[in-house]
Amino acid sequence: MTGRVGGMASCVLLVVCVLTQPAWGLGEERHGNDEMSLSSFTELNPVANHKSRVYAYWVNGHEGLFYRGSTESLNEVLQAFAAAPLEKHEVVLRPAPLSTNDFDQNDIPYDWSLDVIGGIASHMSTLDKGNRFWPVVPVLTIAVDNERIKLADLVIPESVSLVQEYDLRLRYLEGLDSRDQTVRGWGTGHLSRLNQFDTNDAEEVAKMLNDGEKWVRLNAAGSIANYKATAKPQLARLRSALERETADDVREKLSTAIDTIEAAEESPELVARHQALLRAIESFCRKQTTKQPD
C-alpha cells in the first residue's frame, strides 16, 4: 500500500513483548479509493478496490479497509467477496453506526469494512485463543441501519456464513480466558468496542481488573470506560480495584475511567435503537438459514 507513512497506534505487536496498549508500529494509510494491492490475500483485490472505499490502513501486516455506499454497492462487494477462493467467507452483521479513526484520530464513519490480517500481525492468531479476536481468514463487516444499508435489499451469496454480534461475543469471552496476557489484554478492548450497551460485557471487562498481570489490568482499566453509563453498576468494583492496585499507571487509567463513567448520561433511545437492530439482524439471519439447502 502506498500513501502516508508514519508511526501510529497499532492493534498488533511488532515484537511480542509486554507493552502498554496501544503498541507503536510503522503504518501506512490512504484516504479515497485510488487503486491499491493488498499485502496478503491479493485474491481480494477486487473487493479492496471497489469504488466505495473511503479509507484504508496497513499496520504490521494488518490491513483495514472501509467503505461508504448504498446497499446496491454492498451487494456488488458481497458477490466479489464470495467469489474469492478463501477457506471460508464470513460476513458480520452489526448495528450501525460504526466508525474508525485515521492516524490523526479523525473519525471516519463507514457502512462496511474488510479486515485482512497478514504479515507480522498474523502471529496474534497463533497465540492461545488469539484467533477469537484476530481472524485467520479475512472478514467483511456490515453496519446495518436499515436506512443506508437495508437488510431487505441485501443479497447474500450461498457461500457466505453470516455472523451476528452475539456470535462475536461468545468468541471474545473465550478469548479472555487465554493463557496469553497479550490476548487477554487486547481482548478487553475488542469486547468493549462490540456493544457499549451490554451490562454483562461491562462486568466481564471489569472482572479482568483482577488479572494477575499488570498489563492486562491496564488494558481493562482503559477499556471499561468505553461502556460509559452502561458501566455504572460496576463502579463499586472499580473503586475496590483502585484501592488495592499498586501500579501507578493502572491507577491513573482506572481513576480516569471512574470519572468518565460517573459523568456519563444514560442514552435510552440509543439502547432501544441498538436492540431493535439486533433483533432485525437476528430475524434476517434466521430467514437466510432457512433458505440454505439440506
Protein described:
With 294 residues, the protein is of the alpha+beta class. 38% of the residues lie in helices and 21% in strands. The protein has 10 helices and 10 strands. The strands form 2 sheets. The protein has an 8-stranded mixed beta sheet. α5 runs parallel beside α7, α7 (214-223) runs parallel beside α9 (248-263) and α8 packs antiparallel against α9 (248-263). The chain starts with a strand and ends with a helix.
Annotation keywords:
single chain, 294 residues, alpha+beta, 2 domains, 8-stranded mixed beta sheet, two-stranded antiparallel sheet, 21% strand, globular
CA-CA gap between termini: 42 Å
As a whole number of angstroms, the C-alpha radius of gyration is 19 Å
Q: Number of folding domains?
A: 2
Strand-residue proportion = 15-25%
Describe the strand arrangement of the main beta sheet, using strand numbers.
1-2-3-4-8-9-5-10
Q: Mind summarizing the main beta sheet?
A: 8 strands, mixed
| Number of distinct helices | 10
Uncertain regions spanning at least 5 consecutive residues: 7-24
In terms of structural class, how would the helical and strand content be classed? alpha+beta
